[in-house]
Amino acid sequence: MPKKNVDLHGSAPDKNKIALLMIDVINDFDFPEADQLLKYAWPMARKLLRLKRRVQKAGIPVIYVNDNFGRWKSDFRRTVEHCSTHGRGSELVKMLRPEENDYFVLKPKHSGFFSTTLETLLRYLETEILILTGIAGNFCVLFTANDAYMRDFTLFVPSDCTVSNTKPENDAALSLMKKFLKADTRPSSKIALSKRKRSKRRRS
Q1: Is the terminal CB of the chain with fewer CB neighbours within 10 Å at N or C?
Q2: What's the CA dihedral at 9, 14, 15, 17 to 10 degrees?
Q3: Who contacts 123 (Cβ-Cβ below 8 Å, separation ≥6)?
Q4: What is the Cα–Cα distance from 29 to 176, expressed in whole angstroms?
């Protein structure tokens, strides 16, 4: 019998029970409420970048879960390039753009789990706890959190690392996730991250 593939052919070596999901932060902000959202997105992005650096030091995998913005002929790298050179949010995208060791999943709808490879990737990473961050708290973060909860993941949704068009909308979404999805919404600086060495890439 052939051996079970345990590492996605070597492409998912970072076994860890925690993963950071950065949802729709690669964004061209090409919609009517963009200026309003950017007002909240800028301070959020700075805190999210600090959280990402802490996560990286702890050996925790970072996964970009991103909309394809209807660009069905585009891959993630082209999406990043487009959003970092076009639109009102280009400088924010440059700040948060993915790095070589980050993972990415393109999604067609609100939830990061709907018609994507996210669940498969998380299974191979042996992830049990998700830190959900990004844009927008009352849509894509909320929908992803709902689907994650139904898959029995433990959830953190740091209140300072997700934004919506308005603060009341974001606060309401956080309250829903805390009450019904048992999400821990403490600020990102209060999340304890224990350092763990990355698993070495297996060689065939």
Answers
A1: N
A2: -140
A3: none
A4: 25
Question: Both tokens of residue 5?
Answer: 């593939």
Reply yes or no on domain 19-190 having CATH 1.20.1250.20. no
User: Whole-angstrom Cα distance, residue 58 to residue 37?
Assistant: 30
- Supply the pTM of this predicted model: 0.88
Distance CA 125, CA 69 (A): 27
- For 3-7, 12-16, 58-62, 177-181, which range has the lowest pLDDT when averaged over its residues? 3-7
Q: Which residue's entry shows tokens 């994650």? A: 148
pLDDT in tens, 60-92: 999 999 987 655 555 778 888 877 887 788 899
Residues ≥6 apart with Cβ < 8 Å to 173? 137, 138, 141, 142, 162, 164
**Backbone phi and psi for residue 10, each to the nearest 5 degrees, phi listed first:** 85, 0
